[in-house]
């Protein structure tokens, strides 16, 4: 209460200073503990802490759009391997894994909705794996509690990011993220490659806004960069200091959504929401074990590929982990992301109608 009053009375500059200092401190601590994606998790946890005590800051939509574009370009560089044909033999496994996560989340959401543990069709929308903003916006029109859906979606992103990073640490994913290494932050820039990459990262959110594509800021640079890279037209060049800034903006975007009103709601619904979220994560871990047993995929790669969080956070964790198949991880995550965008709303609507009819 005191913290909320104190921060609420301060200027935006003071609140931003608190956020930056807290982000740097947490990111530094997690880096010392050798957590993959420390540069994402630190700002994310700082955003949660600041927002929880009423210290909101205004994060520009343009900054968030550019961060998505930059991360889309990073994912594009990872997808080059898949487009080169090296992952061609795995397409059945990739499709099976991506669709299975959607099926698991839909079945779990339907079961929880039928049980009455959460109001209306809230569980169906809240457990949809990915496309969090889209699912949150659409949910209210189909009998769901939009606040709980938002809480389920973004709490899952936080839990998956933390658990996936911890899992990467436990399963041998030593930190390899050169963004965390001092000298590499300001390595010489290859301008002939960097300028087209930056132009693509900027074009993504601009085109997305013009066309009304909610996920276009990430998807346009991701697919365009992967295709152009495969054709040899461009090479993705991203300075580490710029990626660090993109990680921070994404982390703040997630963390700052946990407003006091949303956290107050969480106090009542948290046990049920945590049960839903942890059940989904546990089932996805079970799916990753099947990939290990029947396709010989290493445990960490399978774990990150099937984790039910966002493709952007999975990309950052994969980039910060050693000895993982980043191409496989991002191909499955991207395939599921596209499936959710295409099938998710229609599937949730269908289950919502059945829930009402029942």
Strand content: under 5%
Mean pLDDT: 79
| Low-pLDDT windows of residues | 174-183
Apparent shape: globular
User: What is the total number of structural domains?
Assistant: 1
Q: Tell me the helix content.
A: over 70%
Secondary-structure element sequence? HHHHHHHHHHHHHHH
> How many angstroms does the end-to-end distance come to?
44 Å
Could you tell me the number of beta strands? 0
What does this molecule look like?
With 358 residues, this protein is an all-alpha fold. It has helices at 2-8, 12-32, 38-52, 61-83, 91-115, 122-126, 132-139, 146-170, 191-211, 216-230, 240-255, 260-295, 299-306, 311-319, 326-357. Helix 4 packs across helix 9 (191-211), helix 9 (191-211) crosses helix 10 (216-230) and helix 12 packs across helix 13. The longest helix has 36 residues, at 260-295. It is globular, with a radius of gyration of 20 Å.
Structure at a glance:
This protein has helices at 2-8, 12-32, 38-52, 61-83, 91-115, 122-126, 132-139, 146-170, 191-211, 216-230, 240-255, 260-295, 299-306, 311-319, 326-357.
